[in-house]
From TrEMBL:
Entry coiled-coil feature ranges: none
Boundaries of every Methyltransferase small domain copy: 29-177
PANTHER family the record matches: RIBOSOMAL RNA SMALL SUBUNIT METHYLTRANSFERASE C
Keywords: Methyltransferase, Transferase
Species whose genome carries this gene: freshwater metagenome
Protein name per Swiss-Prot or TrEMBL: Unannotated protein
Amino acid sequence: MTNEQYFTPNPSSPSSPYVIDVALPDGTLHLTTDRGVFSYGALDTGTRLLLLKAPQPPATGNLLDLGCGVGPIALTLARRSPSATVWALDVNERAVALCRQNAVANDISNVHACLPDDVPDDITFDCIWSNPPIHIGKVALHELLLRWLARLSDTGTAIMVVQRHLGSDSLQAWLTAQGYPTERLSSAKGFRLLITRRCAVAS
Ligand SMILES: C[S@@+](CC[C@H](N)C(=O)[O-])C[C@H]1O[C@@H](n2cnc3c(N)ncnc32)[C@H](O)[C@@H]1O
């Protein structure tokens, strides 16, 4: 038993793959999960809320799953927007490999799973969906969000799910104060679903 965190770049915990079926209104995903990766053996409750309540993503363009884990969000984005390109990012290499493998296993071909620094600098995102890694700490989380929210297209939105007792309301206020107006879309089982927009830039 280790205390390894799910955001370790190269998990040392022995691999022990476990397949779960995730039933959603638009079909079932078959996902291989593993030790050393977020949400081993079950879909996270917050992720489920996001997948059930998020608005329809843009039909085309570049869409981002920030912190993809084994890929439930990325694969759902890809299935709902088959003409878009979905970028699935994670610092955990085991997660990136599983997300890729899960895309193939579910016959999904428009997901590009990679490490954050492998995303070309000139790409902007028409939407971001994320169950963000709150446990990396507030400073690192804020840096991470500012890095990727800056790459939203002018009309792009970010949909994020955050547990109330892990600071969803203060995160909402902080994002708004940073110039990213953020509202609550939905709330259930102790989680908040937030929508963040780019502030219109005065010309
Ligand atoms: C709460 S988990 C969500 C995983 C997956 N999206 C899901 O819903 O099951 C957050 C993910 O963010 C990843 N992460 C942590 N720091 C990151 C960073 N700097 N850039 C990208 N991903 C990161 C973690 O490794 C983890 O897989």
